[in-house]
Amino acid sequence: MFVVGVAGVLTRRNAIIVFMSIELMLNSANLSLVTFSSFSGNPVGQLFVFFVMAVAAAEAAVGLAIIIALFRNKPTLNIDEINILKW
Amino acid sequence: MIDFSEIFLILPLIVIGFGILVSLVFEMYSKQSEKILPWLSILIFTITAIFSIATISEPRDVVFHNMLSVGGNTHFFYFIFNIGAALVSLLSIDYIKKYGTYYGEYYILLQSSVLGMMLMAGAKDLLVIFLGLELMSISFYVLAGLNRKKLSANEASLKYFLLGAFATGFVVYGIALIYGSASSTSLDVITADFSPLTNNLLFIVGVLLFLIGFSFKIAAFPFHMWVPDVYQGSPTTVAGLFSTGGKAAAFSSILITLIAVFSNSAQNIFTPYLSVIATLSMLFGSIVAIAQEDIKRMLAYSSISHAGYLTIGLASGNEYGVAGIIFYLATYTFMNLGAFGIVAMIEGENESNLTISSYAGLSKRKPLLAALLALFMFSLAGIPPFAGFFGKYYIFISAIKADLTWLAVLGVISSAISVYFYIRIVVLMYFKEADSELIIHDSRTGLLALIISSILVVLLGIFPGTILQLITSFI
Fold first, then answer.
1. Does the CB of B156 have a partner CB in chain A at under 8 Å?
2. Predicted ipTM?
């Protein structure tokens, strides 16, 4: 799942899909945290997952706001067309 | 049950946290918040900085169920972050007027990003590192795109956000693997179990993923793509904070995590990875910076090469390296903030006057600004009487002590290359006539910030030994 997320970020060109792939990476980390936690009987991992979920939600809010702000100025979601800053 | 004496020990964090709430309420209810908020945040940063430096020799302790450490180098880092942020706020007062948009959130986000940095530097648990990192990064994403009507700022913010979140994914997965192999996220437990863990593949992959994630944050070579774009597109003062505070915080977290390796004096298994990263970012940063025409992009590439020098200290992984990194981070913060501050003062409306050629003949019209910029450039280039030289010197010494002489030699070569583009600006300022008239807005608060940072750079250059001794005694 982590690898699918990384591949998605690297190959997709739509900002929203890249963003979804990043969420996939975070969720794969969550799954492995829970798995390790139940495997070792140590509850810290499950606690960690709650924090990751809260942070991911905050990140999603900020990220979507940034994408909307950009979309208002330039109606495109293709990250290859967002290229005015180049040397 | 929380012991109330512990509350006193984390007072710097509480002051900043409380400051955020006060500023938020103020922003909502006061019509004059634009005038008062900057000074309020400067006051908060200064109080925290003074308090941290005053309590630096408190006995080092771990509080809140092994979550945070207090005293020693943690407080030194608090001092660096808060002085840096206070300087940024001083510079912003006039810059924000010129930049054309004022949002009250600016200073509040500045404070919350500093709180995140402080959590990162004080962490004793991977969970706290993660939360601090996210608090800092999310505030930074918003700060980068603060001017939401401008396309370049939107783009900078989007790029920073996508790559930053990508890096977060790596960090979280790395932490998950470390947790899986050590069945704890507490760094003390990991240190205690370190020797059996070095043979555990899961653990090594976890630390590597963690380091890759943080390589994005420190802007090291293969993961640097966002740096020039973000610095160019975001407000100049904020870019100064990204390149100094953000980098220092990321390095403090890496140091805290890797200290597990140092304290066991085990073979540093991550040396190959770190030395490759260091070499590539030093050389790439200095060579590409030569070709830049935009001063903010040039400073961005120079910050990539500085990340390379700092990574040498990590690769050598001994006490000298740790002390060298902390010293270098302090000098780097003040000299780079000074350089960005001058760029912010010279920048005209609508992001004009940002090319390197617009600095021609500056010494005639603004002798003081030109002299200060020359001081910061000499210091960044690492020319002896200034602080930048001692930072590099200590880090190269650590590499030689760790039998990584080739890395030190490459570092010297790369800093020799970098002298070219730093000195080019000085030559332009002093030996060339201006071809166009350039309107510079005076800013007294900005000048004050520049003078403070130049004094700090000179002080660090005069007394490097004393400060280094202080840092070393805390390791």
1. yes
2. 0.91
